[in-house]
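Please, does this match?
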Amino acid sequence: MASVPICALIILCILLASYQGSLNVDAEVFLVVMEDESVISYKKSGDDALKYKEKVITRHDIFLESLLPADSYSKLYSYTHLFNGFALHTTSREALEVLHSAQGIRIIHEDVKMVKMTTHSPEYLGLPTRVWPSLGGPDMAGDGVVIGLIDTGINPNHPSFANLKPGPPSDIGKFRGKCESAAHEFPLNACNGKIAGAQYFARAAIVSGDFNASHDFASPFDSDGHGSHTAAIAAGNFRIPVISNNFSYGFASGMAPGAHIAIYKAIYSFGGYMSDVVAAVDKAVEDGVDILSLSIGPSAVPTGPAAFLNILEMELLFAVKAGVLVVQAVGNGGPTPSSVLSFSPWITSVAASTIDRKYNNSIIFGNGQVFTGTALSLPTQEGLFLPLAAAEDVCNWNETCILARNCQRPEPFNRSLIQGKLIVCTFSDFIFSPTSVDSIVSTAQKIGATGFVIIMARGRSSEFLNETTSTLNLPLPGIVLSSREASEAFWDYYDSHTLRSKNEVVVKFGACARILDGRHAVYTGKGPSVASYSSRGPDVNNALMQTADVLKPNILAPGTSIWSAWSPTSQSDQYNIGQDFAILSGTSMATPHVAGVAALIKQKHPHWSPAMITSALMTSAMLTDHSGELLSAQVRDGLTPATPFDYGAGFINPSHALNPGLVFDAKFRQYIQFLCVVPGVDDESVRRAVGTGCPTVRSDWCSDLNTASITVSNLVGSRQVIRKVTSVGSMEERYQVVVREPAGVAVTVNPQAFTIQPNSSMILKIMLEGREIANDYTFGELVFNGDKNHVVKVPLAIFVSSTL
């Protein structure tokens, strides 16, 4: 998500309900799902699959030609691989009415616009010492695995994506993607082996009138920067020098430097459209990607059972059915509860954490006091103290002065008063945002300020602002001070050294300061903590105002202050124009960290299902930070103990995830069973969305889905939950189950101890009994301790509604 530092989540607006007889006549693009089989459900391969695909496309054309006048519509896409359908552009109400009554159509969804809201981490995760060596070194880590990214494209000229391996390209097995060359910065040789394929999808964007060919580019080239950033985090080359604004910030590496990248550009500077994204997902799976990384999600927290049945969620379910692991950003709506935007159990949903690297800047006041703040900033002239001027004291003295305090516009200021000074801009914590800093920088430059200080208004402070401003790569000296101590000290110093007339006009600016160089990293050895912006669980509410018994997020990964590749032609971030690297924060940055680590797991275990990889990531995750303390979460007034609704199963632990001991697997039919027992979802809705009905024999609860967590949103008395574990160890192992009970819940596991052979499975019966109503979720854990040193952890999240 790209000009906003905590941004970096690209947001996808999706209608949640299937077509029920009324459509918005103002919409112009519609996604139509047919009753007929898709290529993947047709179960053919090779030439037979290609022939069937061509037949499906022809049938779409014949179907439309038989129903609608030729001048009343245009077909944008035929979706053939994961589901059978098409995207249609029409402004004819009559055409919609005809489609409404046509036989053979399962679902019609309106297309909805998407909008953007938008290194040190390999070492932080232990990859160079504990993971890469076991896979052949960094250049081979991820070799043969293809990570597909649906984003804003890629900058093929960046050194992070150069083919550094001598000799012929590595074998990438079943991948069949193509390189869609174009005149717009993307020649055919851009797909060099490291970039295995690159395509773009813009038909809906073009017919909408939003697509601007002069800067959006009808090619896979990344004119925005966000796609290059996420791609390099996942699989950028090893040890690439990071230079920005002529300053060296060290070196960057992707999580899987040896993996291959497949680009599916469906997002542009203005955003995008769902029909383009669905086409990109369909093609990525058809091409044979192993992992799909999506920094996208719905624009608002979904509600109601139909959230699980919208067309993109179904597309991603079919992708998982095809063996593709889908990793998705959980959203940047934190720290608000129930703000997760990635909610389906077949998706690996990623939360964002801080890391131990900070860019702390300092300011020295004229009285010798020194305070630490944030922002990557140039220093003021060495040894020279500059006058400080509060914004309200250098504006044209009229009614706009109070409004001028936040420095959002240059018009109110008296330029002659601010020349050569540091302007002081103030904010209340509830209205501050990183986009506000963009306006401050612009204002300071236009009015001739030498630099600026952002400080909280008198009597206010908000420590969490440090994380939202730490990625501001400023073009002039600047600092953000958010602590109460700094705020009080500043105002005491400023007021005592500012001489005013009887009518409060400043006669002399006596307070002064120096801003030091803020471009040098400090490594604290602390963290991780859940970032303040990272969206929180519980999962999406169903019709009975309960969550759907799914733990979200699934996993926590680094997302704050991440250096990665950029596109120098990007206009989306004024501080990074012309640069090859940018530092950003957001769950969009955390997501490719997980996709890259998943590629390492896939390399070592090529036959594991998506659910097994997700299970390995979750059961091996860490619940403590680097100091051994339990994980914490940033909130508006500091830190608080974190829960699974903040971090999922915990902070990602790559070395243990490669050898988890036990895994929980789930198949397509089990996801269908899950959908069939979501309260408020009927059998016909499932059949229309998935193409198959509910089984005659089904589970009783959503909580029975075989995931590496147990969530019960409405425990009435007691409930038995079933789990099936499979051994992926190399030898026989005996496990002892240790229970950490949630408050007010008695938990028993049968069997409590068991011996399991490699590749064998064991059924576990977990009895949950409510003992005390807490009016909130309480959390616990099952820990499977193996005698071969495997430790398998399963989080518990239980809401006791009745003890009966």
In short: The longest helix spans residues 46-67. The CA atoms of residues 224 and 269 lie 6 Å apart. The chain has four domains: 28-110, 114-355+526-662, 360-520, 709-802.
